[in-house]
Sequence to fold (347 residues):
Amino acid sequence: MRAVLVPVCLLLVSPISTTSWTSSSELVLNPKQMCKKARRSRSKMADICNNKPGLVQHVQSGVGLAQAECQYQFRHRRWNCTSAKKSIKKVMLRDTRETGFVNAIIAAGITYQVTRACTKGEQIGCSCDKSRNKRKNKKKKTMNVPEGDWAWDGCGENIEYGIKRSKDFLDTRYKKKSDMKTLVKLHNYVAGRLAIKNYMHKECKCHGLSGSCTLKTCMRKMPSFREIGNRLKQRFDGAAKVIPGNDGKSFIPEGDTIKPPSKADLVYSEESSNFCNPNNTLGSFGTQGRVCNETSPGEDGCGILCCGRKSQSFTKVVQKNCQCEFHFCCDVKCKVCNETVRYSVCQ
Ligand SMILES: *[C@@H]1O[C@H](CO)[C@@H](O)[C@H](O)[C@H]1NC(C)=O
Ligand SMILES: *[C@@H]1O[C@H](CO)[C@@H](O)[C@H](O)[C@H]1NC(C)=O
Ligand SMILES: *[C@@H]1O[C@H](CO)[C@@H](O)[C@H](O)[C@H]1NC(C)=O
Ligand SMILES: *[C@@H]1O[C@H](CO)[C@@H](O)[C@H](O)[C@H]1NC(C)=O
Fold:
């Protein structure tokens, strides 16, 4: 039971749960609380907690990043990745598609922030990635390359270090376990990291006189975290349900016609609840009171979000800038107008 609960600690959020996107970055884990549990063990995590406080800060910020992105990606869904402990705790104890997404994005968030910190030169026991530099420069001894050609910048993003630390933190304590939930979790951690690693791109800068580009250097960069979130959301939509394999150490897709999931796919072993009605056991708050869109055919549409129940229409007055005038030079003056907006709420 204890081992299952550890990942939940990663998501320990401030007890005052706020639902505003902008303040969701406050909802980060408490590294002290998380480390308190690991401190006395002999795990890699304990080593990090005891000896690398700088790294713990970046892990913390990675979880915060993951959580904010989860809330963005799920903002229109019935379960909206709420930070309320009553809900997220229950969801993380299961093995549904939602569980898989959250695990993947946390692994990605930690990888991302640790890698970024590395690139920025923070002292957390790493340096930037010089491997490509060596390879390319073997052929070309000089950084001065003819136009159209380029050299690796001395400093690429050290994704391997980020991945390693993310593993130390998340995966290592499951080393001796091979039950279904653990296998699924470890798979989804990998999928989360691959959503970064498989999409590194080359970014180049021109140097030289007035953009002449006589010297061009390139480095490997990570995609933005929004891109990573979008990709993982697609994987969530296409996640594969799996069942235990015969050897007891692996899983196979449920149904023979389904192709085996790749390392980058998300997997799950339990069906999600529909999150339509409140249910404490499942961590569902239901969708009563949620704002929905009368005309949308998608998951934010009242039909889907309200689970077939009625929705009620309200109006509110919002203030907007209007009748803006341009004054020479260079000033724009606006009036403040009241505008009535309609919106619908699930009953
Ligand atoms: C998320 O869902 C909860 C419970 O259904 C709701 O109280 C909250 O307002 C929602 N958050 C957003 C940003 O819609
Ligand atoms: C909550 O969900 C569980 C599991 O699906 C179910 O057994 C239980 O009856 C539900 N409780 C309510 C109040 O609907
Ligand atoms: C509601 O959905 C429609 C159709 O998808 C979209 O055009 C519109 O912008 C949405 N309204 C809001 C307030 O999001
Ligand atoms: C807009 O509404 C506010 C109250 O919400 C009111 O005090 C103000 O006079 C209104 N302005 C206009 C231009 O109607």
In short: The chain is about 40% helix and 20% strand. Residues 18-128+153-198+222-278 form one domain. Residues 273 and 282 are 7 Å apart (CA to CA). The pocket of 2-acetamido-2-deoxy-beta-D-glucopyranose (ligand 1) is lined by residues 19, 75, 80, 82, 285, 290 (CB under 6 Å).
